[in-house]
Amino acid sequence: xxxxxxxxxxxxxxxxxxxxxxxxxxxxxxxxxxxxxxxxxxxxxxxxxxxxxxxxxxxxxxxxxxxxxxxxxxxxxxxxxxxxxxxxxxxxxxxxxxxxxxxxxxxxxxxxxxxxxxxxxxxxxxxxxxxxxxxxxxxx
Length: 140
Description:
By secondary structure, the protein is an alpha+beta fold. It has a single domain, classed as Glycoprotein, Type 4 Pilin (2-Layer Sandwich). Helices cover 35% and strands 18% of the residues. The protein contains two helices and four strands, in the order ααββββ. A four-stranded antiparallel beta sheet has the order 1-2-3-4, with helices on one face. The protein is rod-shaped and about 100 Å long.
């Protein structure tokens, strides 16, 4: 008798199927992580406006220009076109700092913004076209 060794075709096909499934899961997970990190980066860019915005508020009525230029910050980055809204004294200022998202095809044209509450606290808000799965925790 002749003894054979090795794997059968069925065994090899099962191994290839398992590897394919694991690769598909890893790819989806990787893409989700990339999207989350991009939106977290945008959130951090928005946060850079908080202190300069408060400084302009503290300067009082003499300030008429609430813009990224006045705050010595960029008006645009790779992912954002920034807009600033002058504060509504004593009330909530919606869209105090807004990022119009660009160069990200899965959220192209959507917005991530910071609202300034009357008590001076900030709240992150995202437009409806951005999946909550990709948003940083403070924006959910």
